[in-house]
């Protein structure tokens, strides 16, 4: 953000909450914007709860896509000199960096949550990486040099199309899309997390291409390449690896958000198994019996579903050393559970 404020003009950045109409006024003056929000919970909660917030969250989808934007209200006719109601922006874009807590970052309570998940790149921190007892200042010569380098990007003009790929990069681009489609088909879709990952994978190739352009521009700013709009195989490989890491982070966010729910179900199941074991240290139960005991009413609100039992809860108990696969003979599967003494 410090570098951006040195390189960009004031009207090229925005911040905070705004209504859809207020955003239009802003983007009409400057249609390409950058937004940083390190306290993003406030904005995301507004998108969940306020009527104007839901409208704005839908607008952010189109801003990501660079879509045309038209407003047509009677009040516009009263305010304009030519008495015309329609106002139009040919192409409006927004790049957004937003920080929030795990529960809010899932975007599950947003009407536009699925669309935003497809467009966002997720980054997760679950622990302190390092200790800094006296942070370095963000001023000085180092920031000036970085700002000067990134300022060179403001002069870039052009677009990225099929002709922008080197032959080797085009071969890799096709392979990348085949891998992505195969991964889409491999997702079982049993859980909400599966659905969210599948939705994000649909956008994944487009995000890889956007990342490749960003990385190539960073190389250009550093003086490593002469043409920022030529896509090479190595930068596509880097973009795909980066996007895969963002998808892994999305899966982790889903897992963190469901962790307490999974743990609650796990403890309930272990308590019931312990009661039926009559003091034994272990108990072996078939998969069919587990289904009958714990997932017999999948249609009832709040009831445990078999997909959740076998795709989330049992794997959680296995990871924590409280359960293991015992046998599998044909369709018959059994699990052994270690019970508290």
Helix and strand arrangement:
Blueprint (H helix, E strand, L loop, with lengths): L1 H6 L5 E2 L5 H10 L2 E6 L3 H9 L1 H15 L3 E4 L1 H6 L6 E4 L3 E6 L3 H4 L7 H7 L21 H11 L15 H20 L5 H31 L10 H45 L4 E5 H8 L11 H14 L3 E7 L2 E7 L3
Parallel strand pairs: 1-2, 2-5
Antiparallel strand pairs: 3-4, 6-8, 7-8
Helix pairs in contact: 3-4, 7-10, 9-10, 9-11, 10-11, 11-13
Number of helices: 13
Please report the total strand number as a whole number.
Answer: 8
Low-confidence stretches: none
Radius of gyration of CA atoms, rounded to a whole number: 26 Å
Report helical residue fraction: 40-55%
Beta strand %? 5-15%
Strand order of the largest sheet: 1-2-5
Structural class: alpha/beta
The main pleated sheet reads as: 3 strands, parallel
Average of the residue pLDDT scores? 87
């Amino acid at each position: 953000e410090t570098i951006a404020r040195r390189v960009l003009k004031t009207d090229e950045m925005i911040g905070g909450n705004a209504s859809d109409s207020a955003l239009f006024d802003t983007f009409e003056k400057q249609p390409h914007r950058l937004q940083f929000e390190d306290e993003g919970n406030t904005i995301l909660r507004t998108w969940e709860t306020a009527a104007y917030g839901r409208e704005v969250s839908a607008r952010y989808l189109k801003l990501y896509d660079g879509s045309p934007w038209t407003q047509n209200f009677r009040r516009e006719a009263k305010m304009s000199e030519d008495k015309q109601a329609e106002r139009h922006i040919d192409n409006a874009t927004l790049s957004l960096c937003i920080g929030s807590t795990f529960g809010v970052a899932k975007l599950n309570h947003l009407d536009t949550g699925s669309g935003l998940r497809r467009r966002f790149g997720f980054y997760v921190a679950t622990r302190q990486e390092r200790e800094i007892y006296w942070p370095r200042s963000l001023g000085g010569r180092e920031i000036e040099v970085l700002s000067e380098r990134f300022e060179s990007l403001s002069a870039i003009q052009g677009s990225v199309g099929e002709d922008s790929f080197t032959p080797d990069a085009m071969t890799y681009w096709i392979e990348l899309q085949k891998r992505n489609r195969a991964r889409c088909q491999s997702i079982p879709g049993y859980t909400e997390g599966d659905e969210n990952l599948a939705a994000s994978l649909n956008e994944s190739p487009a995000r890889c291409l956007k990342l490749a352009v960003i990385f190539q521009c960073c190389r250009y700013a550093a003086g490593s390449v002469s043409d920022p709009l030529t896509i090479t195989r190595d930068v596509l490989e880097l973009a795909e690896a980066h996007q895969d890491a963002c998808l892994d982070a999305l899966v982790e966010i889903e897992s963190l958000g469901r962790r307490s729910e999974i743990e609650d179900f796990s403890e309930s199941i272990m308590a019931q198994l312990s009661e039926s074991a009559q003091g034994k240290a272990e108990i072996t139960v078939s998969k069919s019996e587990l289904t009958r005991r714990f997932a017999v009413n999948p249609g009832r609100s709040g009831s445990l579903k078999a997909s959740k039992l076998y795709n989330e809860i049992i794997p959680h108990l296995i990871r924590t050393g409280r359960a293991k696969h015992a046998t599998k003979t044909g369709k018959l599967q059994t699990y052994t559970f270690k019970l508290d003494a």
